[in-house]
Amino acid sequence: MQRLFARSLIAALLATAFAVVAMFLQAPPRASAAAVWQGTVGSDQANVRSAPNTSAPIVNVLQHGQPVTVVAWVSGEETQPTVDTWAELGPGQYVYGLLLYESKPTVAPPMPAGVNFSGKWIDANLTGQVLTAYVGTTPVRSVLVSSGRPDYPTPMGTFTILRRVANETMDSSTVPGLTDKYKLTNVLFTQYFTQGGAAIHEAWWKSNDSFGIPTSHGCLGLPYSDALWFWNWASTGTPVVVHR
After folding, report:
1. Strands 239-243 and 83-90
2. What is the dihedral of CA 117, 189, 130, 125, to 10 degrees?
3. Domain holding 54: CATH number?
4. Which of 20, 56, 128, 178 has the greatest number of C-beta atoms within 10 Å?
5. Which of these three, 68, 101, 134, is where a domain ends?
6. Do residues 236 and 161 lie in contact, with contact meaning Cβ atoms separated by under 8 Å?
7. For the chain, how far is it from start to end, CA to CA, in angstroms?
């Protein structure tokens, strides 16, 4: 009886030890699934309005650092040039997008369902506004990204990097149907993944605090250091999965 008890105790201890080892050897953790964007108020104050424009009545005032949950991004008044992105917090509650702030991710978002790549691939999570480099099922690096604003959404689906341009000029006149006018020179580390011009690239014209808000014309914009990292890590043919 004592021998049986000792064997059971040893087996339990070994199982616990293996579980602890496995915990430390597993891939970096992923966040739990979320269908909303979560961040904080980045400005001193943020007026919550009944519609996505500054002439709508104020229904609430949020303070700096206050947690915010965004259920949808909608088009509204361009409080700043070419940025018409407003956050919908609930029915009849809207905040201008650039008044909000998202912290850099410490864990990778959930992987999209049905993805089965063994090598390098890139996950663009539009809900969380996070770009993640993967090798198989192992997340390597997650960063904030600014995807397409509501009226110029980033195309969703599974793509591959088609071509790469180290230093690009982006001109709105070359994009069919685009009403905004711009000509951006010295756009670094551009990696096109659609024939229509959607790309991962550096966005030097954005402030660092604005990444994590969907304000582009369809591309996936990154700060310099993150764009450089993805440029060095990826290559032509690397899969890109864009999803909500």
Report:
1. unpaired
2. -50
3. 2.30.30.40
4. 128
5. 101
6. yes
7. 58
CA–CA–CA angle 139, 145, 149 (5° rounding): 135
Determine, yes or no, domain membership for 128: yes
Per-residue pLDDT of the chain (244 residues; tens, 9 = 90+): 444 344 444 444 444 443 333 333 333 444 444 568 999 999 999 999 999 999 999 999 999 999 999 999 999 999 998 899 999 999 999 999 999 999 999 999 999 999 999 999 999 999 999 999 999 999 999 999 999 999 999 999 999 999 999 999 987 666 666 666 667 999 999 999 999 999 999 999 999 999 999 999 999 999 999 999 999 999 999 999 999 9
Residues 73 and 133 in one domain: no
CA distances (Å), 146 to each of 85, 118, 159, 212, in order? 11, 27, 18, 5
Quick one: tokens of 29?
Answer: 């953790």
167 and 140 within one domain: yes
Q: Which domain holds residue 192?
A: 120-243
210 token code pair: 């604005």
Task: Give the integer Cα–Cα distance in Å for 54 and 73.
Answer: 16
